[in-house]
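Work through what follows:
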Amino acid sequence: MATDPAIAAWEQVVARDVTTGGITLRVFEHGPRDTDKPVVVLCHGFPELAFSWRHQVRALAEAGYRVLAPDMRGYGGSSRPADVDAYDALALCADLAGLLDDIGADDAVFVGHDWGASVVWHMAWTHPERVRAVVGMSVPVTPRSPAPPLPILRKHLGDDFYMVWFQEPGVADRALAQNVRRTLVTREIWSAAWAARPDEEFPAPAWLSERELAHYVDEFERTGFTGGLNYYRNLDRTWELTGHLAERTIDCPALFVTGSQDPVRHFMPDDKMERVLTDLRGRVVLDGAGHWVQQERPAEVDAALLDFLADLG
């Protein structure tokens, strides 16, 4: 079988384990260590892995940045604590601070997609001294909701909305793990109705080779999805733990990147970001792109990141 260029390039990235906060994170590191440019930390979403940043890791390293891309807590080669309460946003941010401590860095530029975006927004709230700049993809930062988010989601979007359906431990876990390939390539948003239908057989999307898809399938068949689902199960708990941040703004340079066809835009509009971000330097909307934006349109995402980083000086 011919070598997949993306797989071959990823295999050149150094992987190591970092112990922090009582867990171990598998971290993929690339780029020069002796550089005057900021460290860049790339945080993936659900259901992804550090591998979802394979294109950006290479582009940023070639531009002279030291890049860290962890398998986030609960995923891939990182620890998967059994306690649901181990996945609130404060714990996830402490993981990222621990990565900086491990390499002796005072701060970094944090870039996140999907749940990773939520984590890096929270990182900029909770550890502003460690965040030189922040980039969110697909999930915008929003002002604090007036009440815990899950009852609001249930009221407006129903019990079968995926974030609500994910709440009962074991239910979505089993449904998503039953056919991992189907879970990863489905064209629908996961729900009880989706889980009850017979398996579809979709090819990999155009932006994902069969070898790349196999990498995801192999990992999630090994780990299951519970770690990632536990992020959703901490929505209300995170809201309760972050009340002291209600009036805090994010004052570092910020960028938001999304696709025009991202379904998240229907229930999480980005029109309130300026209430939180005092230095929003741009919104990049990639026409025709969907949710998996850094994998679907890597060249344009790479360019947006490099332009933003260059502007930091």
